[in-house]
Amino acid sequence: MSLLNIAPQRLMKGDTVGVIAPASPPVPEKLDRAVRFLKELGLEVKVGRSAAERHGYLAGSDEERLGDLHDMFEDRSVKAVICACGGYGTARIAGKIDYRLIKSRPKIFWGYSDITFLHTAIRQNTGLITFHGPMLSSDIGKDDVHPLTRRSFQQLF
Fold it and tell me: Is the confidence at residue 2, as pLDDT, over 70?
């Protein structure tokens, strides 16, 4: 089966981005710093409910993390879905993702590490072009973020 490439729309200042944690929970202080960074870029930020949860080594149960992913794609005010951090866990939800929802509401999807599993699953099931880029909690939320890492977010605009 051949899929067409689906390109998400660029972000504009004032747009809302959704932050989710589909794997490990982010370090709260680092996530707070990263959210401030996104706001400095001129974005509004909506953080998924499970990002603050802990379920063993995961940010909430599989159902909660999957729910956040679906909620962000469902929400028409959210223009991009940015992952807070990686870590084990994304493969546990990939088989339950509503790919028709993602295909019908294409948005920027951003992250790396274990999130690569979701990049692959989303691409194979929808044709959506996704973005492999710095994580909020583990990269942008650090005390000493390299300027190039910060600038990489400009490609979203």
Answer: no
